[in-house]
UniProtKB/TrEMBL annotation:
Naturally occurring in which organism (per UniProt): Pocillopora damicornis
Phylogenetic lineage: Eukaryota, Metazoa, Cnidaria, Anthozoa, Hexacorallia
Entry keyword set: Disulfide bond, Signal
Signal peptide start-end: 1-24
Superkingdom of source: Eukaryota
Protein name as annotated: F5/8 type C domain-containing protein
Length: 450
């Protein structure tokens, strides 16, 4: 560092400290614990003694709930005036799978008959494998308070039907679906409100909704909702049977220990989530729901939980960085290797951190080139490429180097890179270049440039 930067030294040190702090914070190891049975959904308190989270739970700290009052914030509206407050807080949306990393969900507060009153608040959630942590919003009003409930550990690892990134549309099929609307199988995802949920064409008992989980799971629970409709519609499945298989052919009906077909009964209506733990977990890849009793129409939205992932947290099937909540997209057109020369030069010195995950997308191309690209590609000087192989196996991770091509040297400078194959795209953990002008460039596929 030359002396003319000395006056900046204190600023640089503060910036460096901030950067370290951001990197070392992990909400799964650094959170505050709340053990408060008065938050339980079954605690009905005289509202005269209502409590409030304003100023107590803030966005400064992640929290984990423990103890007899419950360990998760409920997904169904609590009864009015429960949880030691006037307005009891619950989450409208899925708790994430481990692989989804940190997600944001709508936080609702029930006030009398209004199940989701007040301004819309959001809460961040992360699944830490055997527990959840939450980052509450900063409340501006009283009496709002988060509720908790006890949830069997089996429900802590959803397979991910609620996310189209985990279970793609082509893995959701059905015997039939109602036309003229968003009723097809792909809308049969728990918590999905982009469509109406799955509705078969006719109301008869031969209809089914099937999910292909992509590989075998040890399924220990199912969760269901009815269709996604407003209050005046009263159409939902009230009972169903499950058929499962590993090969999409030799299906077995789910039975209890005495060899009797199990019929699952739903008490929830359209939006309430019904959870059923399987007394006997089954290994399955294809699972079919056969509605057996209905209220007007056999609509469903579904999810499964897997017993296997919980005991195997570190090797969750889909790595966290493959989730859109964990990577940032690099999609600028001028990041594409042959972008037309502009009057300015670009550089990646302004990446926010050292070692964040990035996905090349859109006009920037779909990957980095695994060969030396021309200097001054992607409107910079030193053009970045990967000096090594990309991972060829699904979800494989490789550590390699990026080279920057400048002058007559294909590798005038290099920087470590990790690359994850996310089965359909790559994500790259990229270091911020310390100086300009170095930039990571995109290409499309392997053979665009020779
Ligand atoms: C709901 O499901 C549809 C169909 O798969 C999907 O296009 C949509 O993105 C889903 N909504 C959310 C919020 O995931
Ligand atoms: C039941 O479904 C079959 C085809 O899946 C259809 O042909 C038949 O009309 C349906 N019955 C009723 C009563 O809707
Ligand atoms: C860059 O390459 C693409 C094909 O990959 C081509 O369509 C485009 O015209 C090229 N742009 C320039 C500025 O050469
Ligand atoms: C810094 O990043 C922003 C957006 O991420 C981009 O628009 C800008 O051009 C970048 N600056 C340089 C010098 O590359
Ligand atoms: C990742 O792995 C899959 C499965 O082995 C392979 O087919 C694919 O070409 C690899 N690359 C990407 C971008 O998914
Ligand atoms: C690529 O990396 C290898 C070491 O892994 C190095 O020997 C080689 O010189 C690099 N390629 C270029 C063009 O610098």
């Amino acid at each position: 560092m030359t002396s003319r930067f000395l006056p900046l030294l204190p600023v640089l040190i503060v910036l460096a400290l901030l950067a370290t702090r951001v990197q070392s914070t992990d909400e799964c190891t650094s959170y505050s614990t709340i053990n408060d049975p008065t938050r339980s959904v079954s605690n009905e308190k005289n509202s005269e003694f209502a409590l409030c989270d304003k100023g107590i739970l803030t966005s400064e700290s992640w929290v984990r709930f423990t103890g007899s009052g419950g360990t998760v914030i409920p997904n169904n509206p609590p009864q009015a005036h429960h949880c030691g407050t006037k307005s009891s807080g619950w989450i409208r949306g899925a708790h994430p799978a481990v692989a989804e990393g940190v997600v944001q969900r709508e936080l609702c507060y029930r006030y009398n008959e209004n199940e989701c009153g007040f301004d819309s608040y959001e809460i961040s959630i992360r699944n830490c494998g055997s527990f959840f942590v939450y980052k509450p919003p900063d409340l501006t009003e009283c009496y709002l308070r988060l509720c908790t409930e006890i949830l069997d550990e089996c429900f802590f690892e959803p397979v991910g039907v609620s996310s189209p990134f985990v279970i793609p549309d082509n893995q959701m099929t059905a015997s039939s679906y109602r036309e003229n609307g968003k009723y097809s199988a792909k809308y049969g995802r728990l918590f999905n409100v982009s469509g109406n949920g799955w509705f078969p064409k006719n109301r008869n008992k031969t209809d089914w909704l099937q999910v292909d989980l992509g590989k075998e799971f040890q399924v220990c629970a199912v969760a269901t909702q009815g269709g996604n409709y407003g209050k005046k519609h009263k159409e939902w499945t009230t009972a169903f049977k499950l058929l499962y298989s590993s090969d999409d052919k030799n299906r077995q009906t789910y039975q209890d220990g005495n060899g009797v077909d199990v019929e699952f009964y739903r008490v929830g209506k359209n939006h309430e989530v019904d959870r059923h733990k399987l007394s006997r977990p089954v290994v399955a890849r294809y699972i079919r729901f056969y509605p057996t009793k209905i209220r007007e129409w056999d609509s469903l939205r579904v999810e499964f939980s897997s017993a296997t992932i919980i005991s195997n947290f570190k090797s969750a099937s889909i790595p966290a960085e493959c989730s859109p909540s964990q990577y940032q997209e690099l999609n600028e057109a001028d990041r594409y290797w042959n972008a037309s020369v502009k009057s300015y030069l670009a550089c990646d010195k302004n990446f926010s951190t050292h070692g964040a995950w990035y996905r090349f997308a859109g006009a920037a191309g779909s990957m980095m080139a695994p060969y030396c690209i021309p200097k001054q590609s992607c409107i910079t000087h030193g053009a970045g490429w990967i000096n090594g192989s990309h991972p060829s196996e699904a979800y494989q991770l490789v550590s390699t180097n990026a080279c920057f091509h400048w002058g007559s040297n294909c590798c005038v400078k290099s920087s470590p890179v990790q690359i994850r194959n996310c089965s359909g795209y790559y994500v790259y953990k990229l270091q911020k270049p310390e100086t300009c002008y170095y930039r990571y460039c995109g290409v499309n596929g392997l053979y665009v440039y020779v």
